[in-house]
Design a protein that fits this description.
The complex is a heterodimer of chains A (about 80) and B (about 500). Chain A is mainly α. Chain A is about 50% helix and about 0% strand. Chain B is about 30% helix and about 25% strand. Chain B has a five-stranded mixed β-sheet. In chain B, strands 16, 17, 19, 20 and 21 form a five-stranded antiparallel β-sheet that branches. Classes of the chains: A mainly alpha (about 80), B alpha/beta (about 500).
Chain lengths: ~80, ~500
């Protein structure tokens, strides 16, 4: 989780990722962020996020993103 | 000879009054509705005595917004599209230049508009589009107009911190649309999926051909460009067969291996512009849609839109660059070297454009206009303007034009044209910042900001987001103790870039 928060904070230093649960709904993240994020997650966690998992629910909070990473790691 | 862009609409509305012209995922406007509402808006603006003035269209992305553009043209004025997501500071700068007397807004943007200081009136689209149509007045306006009269201003990034308003006229838009349509072969069955914002010239590719042919344009919700499977499902749902997108919107789909799940089954024409298409991603598209036509488009806002095209007709190696090809008919490209001479075949030069496609220049900015729209240095016999793009190009051994680089610090990021200097000016404006410099990571397409100052990265990012559009906000912000300088005392960009690449 620490590592993920680091990636997110580098993208947007001004956002409180530990509490925000509307990253997509409130347009905190845009399409460029998603592309960057997926590439960084692939880099740091060696987890490739498939297109089917690219849905708003999986990206609305740091918790949700982390849950997705864990799920994919266990597959 | 056609002298007014509205003739496209007037011919089509007779033929296809009930066909949907512009739509989003929930509602659409037929050609008859577009025609009636545009003329109502035009009649209203005329009744307020506006003529040959900038009229700001400040509405969220919607079919009504496009109709408002035509309404402004009917009134003999020129439209200036602004976006609800533009930050306040940028709109203020634009208003300072424009001094708008009339703003057309919708229910959502009305409140924002009213918080701005301007010496004019804000009108609600839903009210003025129901005005009584004054045929006599509209005919009189048409009789007065000539094809070099302006129809819009779009604002683009300016290195001094002030956005530049590029102003286009009927003639250049008609010239552009006619030749674009020849190349892309649109027709009445064309169904466009619009991706580009309405506040840039990029959307002309869908807006005017839709009028010309009686085609249909669907505005795609912006959010779908984060979720590729949903995006392709949208394309299939509305049977979209033609897209003119920025490259990053296309690569977002292919890079996530979307085609393994779903294919855009109706798509037959894929045009792309504003960035170089990475061949690896292009090959994924080509493999998914082997029978579609792929066309690379190139051109700056200052020549109305697109001036060169290349229809992909061969395979490319991963290290090759797709050319931008050849100019449209009735447009000429000249390469000029540092001495304003034509370089030898295969040598680099600045890409300069000659033709009717040249816009009128920058609104209220003679200095910048004169720098870029200049007398053709190869001709000292009569007045002839060319536009100097600032792009460096060369001809390959096949005689195709290839884009190489920029002369200055302009970059292309997510399809947007950005002057790094504009970001630096804004950051330097903050009282706690002593110096700032931006570099661009072309591989990862990241804007990196370095600054020296007594303010943390969190605060500076918050500040930048208030001042600049989202696509100009740096993707990485680094605070430095001191800024590296060259022996001449300038910021050492090369060293910053080198250090950045090493730290990756």
């Amino acid at each position: 989780m620490e590592e993920l928060l680091e990636i997110l904070c580098e993208l947007h230093p001004d956002v409180d990722f530990e509490s925000c649960t509307t990253l997509i709904d409130d347009k905190v993240l845009d399409s460029f962020d998603i592309v960057t994020l997926v590439a960084e997650i692939d880099d740091k966690f060696s987890v490739a996020i498939p297109a089917g998992e690219l849905v708003p629910e999986n990206f609305n909070s740091a918790q949700a993103i982390y849950a997705l990473i864990e799920k994919l790691e266990n597959e | 000879m056609q002298t007014n862009v509205l003739e496209y609409l007037e011919k089509t509305v007779v033929r296809l009054p009930e066909k949907v012209a512009f739509a989003n995922e929930v509602e659409g406007l037929t050609f008859k509705q577009v025609y009636d509402q545009a003329r109502a808006v035009g009649s209203f603006l005329h009744s307020k005595n506006f003529y040959n003035k900038p009229v700001v269209v400040f509405m969220k992305k919607h079919p009504n917004t496009i109709t408002a553009f035509f309404g402004v043209i009917y009134s003999g004025n020129y439209y200036v599209p602004l976006d609800e997501e533009m930050p306040r500071h940028r709109i203020e700068l634009i208003f300072e230049t424009l001094k708008p007397q009339a703003i057309i807004c919708d229910e959502d943007t009305r409140e924002i508009v009213n918080t701005f200081n301007f010496d004019g009136e804000a009108y609600l689209y839903s009210d003025i589009s129901k005005s009584k149509i004054d045929d006599v007045a509209l005919n009189q306006i048409r009789d007065r107009q000539i094809d070099t009269d302006p129809i819009y201003i779009v604002f683009t990034s300016g290195s001094t911190g002030i956005p530049k308003g590029v102003m286009a006229c009927h003639r250049s838009v008609i010239d552009y649309i006619e030749h674009l349509c020849d190349v892309l072969k649109f027709d009445e069955d064309t169904v466009f999926g619009n991706q580009t914002p309405l506040y840039f010239d990029a959307c002309l590719k869908e807006v005017y051909p839709t009028l010309k042919y009686g085609a249909t344009t669907y505005i795609i919700p912006k959010q779908l460009f984060m979720f590729p499977i949903k995006l392709v499902e949208f394309l299939n749902q509305f049977k979209i067969n033609t897209v003119c997108w920025v490259v990053s919107a296309l690569t977002m789909i292919s890079a996530f291996r979307t085609f393994e799940t779903v294919i855009p089954q109706y798509l037959r024409t894929i045009a792309f512009a504003s960035e170089v298409f990475p061949i690896k991603q292009f090959n994924l598209w080509k493999a998914a849609l082997p029978n579609a036509r792929f066309i690379n488009l190139y051109g700056p806002t200052e020549v109305t839109g697109i001036c060169c095209y290349y229809e992909v007709d061969r395979e490319f190696g991963l290290d090759e660059t797709m050319p931008v090809g050849r100019p449209f008919k009735n447009t000429d490209i000249i390469l000029l070297d540092e001495n304003n001479k034509v370089p030898a075949q295969g040598e680099q030069g600045e890409i300069c454009v000659r033709g009717t496609c040249l816009t009128l220049g920058y609104y209220k900015n003679k200095e910048k206009t004169d720098e870029a729209f200049v007398q053709n240095p190869l001709n000292d016999l009569y007045p002839e303007l060319i536009y100097r793009t600032g792009d460096i190009g060369k001809y390959n051994e096949r005689g195709e034009l290839v884009f190489m680089s920029r002369k200055d610090y302009q970059i292309k990021h997510m399809g947007h044209r950005i002057e790094l200097g504009e970001i630096e000016v804004i950051v330097n404006m903050h009282p706690a910042v002593s110096t700032a410099c931006c570099i661009f990571d072309n591989d990862k397409k990241k804007i990196i900001l370095y600054y020296v100052g007594d303010i943390d990265t969190k605060e500076i990012t918050t500040y930048i987001k208030e001042k600049l559009p989202r696509y100009m906000v740096p993707n990485l912000v680094k605070q430095l103790e001191t800024m590296p300088l060259t022996p001449n005392g300038k910021i050492n960009r090369a060293l910053l870039k080198e250090q950045y690449l090493q730290s990756k």
